[in-house]
Amino acid sequence: MLNFLIFAAGLAALVAGADVLVRGASKLALSFGISPLVVGLTIVAFGTSAPEMAVSAGAVLNGQMDLAMGNVVGSNIFNVLFVLGASALIVPLVVNMQLIRQEVPILIGATLLLLVLSLDGRLSLLDGALLFGLLIAYTVFLIVQSRRETRSALAAHAAPNEFDTELKPAEQGAWDSRLWVQLVLIVVGLGLLVVGSDWLVTASVVFAKALGVSDVVIGLTIVAAGTSMPEVATSLAAAFKGERDIAVGNAVGSSTFNILGCLGLSGLLSGSAGLVVAPALLAFDMWVMLAVALACLPIFLSGREIARWEGGVFVGYYAAYVSYLILAAQEHDALQTYSSVMMGFVIPITVITLVVSLIRRPPPAAPGN
């Protein structure tokens, strides 16, 4: 009963934290002339990925290498398939061209880099330093790029741009228009998200251990989903509030941060021994992570939005992936049949449908974003 109460309290903290964080982050974007997309890719994404970093770093220090790697790989699969999918089911998500041209290719590049670094079965101290250094460079680049584009737009049009048109004159005196209030909202929101996810993961791991599930499977499923609850809560709240750039940017940015930040720090903490990569992850799950990152491009390009049906496909595939993990962990007799049906029927039909949709869907009427 205590674990059920902890689980419920964690969910409540996540919902409250997400609402506060989205409000503070969106207002901060207006104050600094930074686009909501970049806020979603940096402040919100990094903040909501704090639980993944904490869990992975703690797992390395406790010698649970499988849990550290499984948490990040599982979280990235969850971010793309479930977080984006569930958000699109609420409202079709318009995709900023910056995501298509820059952010998704960067995510794919980071995923490929992780695969290459992991081919020898471990992430060394040097590998961790490389990943973490790339995260710092990427963050600085995003902020500088956004501020330069904002200044250019203002100089070219000599009129309010897309950022300050949202802040109507009547809102100038609003209680959340002050910088210190926005920072407090972000800190409080992040604090609630971290505490809520910690309670959720604690209760979930107890449930999983009672069922005799391995560390790898726990990391890929329960811990990955639990530490990604901030992303779920934040993206869903952003979708409800109409902050679609934050909703999409949060999911994509969190996935990039998980690879560069969480595994970068974990590699640094692992010392000379390095972070061991489980053979099962390298043989299957890391390739699934790459596949879902690659799947973003055709879906984002098909009309530059994630339609509701495409969100449903994403959520359905996440359910299929988790089902596969459970069957594999139990060495169930139905595993072979299930795999054959997925590989021989479901996946090809989905690929054909996406290709046809990409070809037939007309281009957007106005350039915008």
List the helices and strands and how they pair.
Layout: H1 2-32, H2 36-48, H3 50-61, H4 65-90, E1 93-94, H5 97-118, E2 122-123, H6 125-157, H7 179-210, H8 215-227, H9 229-241, H10 244-269, E3 275-276, H11 279-301, E4 305-306, H12 308-329, H13 335-360
Antiparallel strand pairs: 1-4, 2-3
Helix pairs in contact: 1-2, 1-7, 1-9, 2-10, 3-4, 3-10, 4-8, 4-9, 4-10, 4-11, 4-12, 5-10, 5-11, 6-10, 7-8, 9-10, 12-13
In short:
With 369 residues, the chain is an all-alpha fold. 79% of the residues lie in helices and 2% in strands.
Please provide a written account of the structure:
By secondary structure, this protein is an all-alpha fold. It has a single domain (9-165, 178-360), classed as NCX, central ion-binding region (A middle domain of Talin 1, Up-down Bundle). The chain contains 13 helices and four strands. It has helices at 2-32, 36-48, 50-61, 65-90, 97-118, 125-157, 179-210, 215-227, 229-241, 244-269, 279-301, 308-329, 335-360; strands at 93-94, 122-123, 275-276, 305-306. The strands form two sheets. Strands 1-4 form a two-stranded antiparallel sheet. The chain has a two-stranded antiparallel ribbon with strand order 2-3. α4 packs across α8. The protein is globular, with a radius of gyration of 20 Å. It starts with a helix and ends in a 9-residue tail after the last helix. Mean pLDDT is 76; it is low at 159-172 and 364-369.
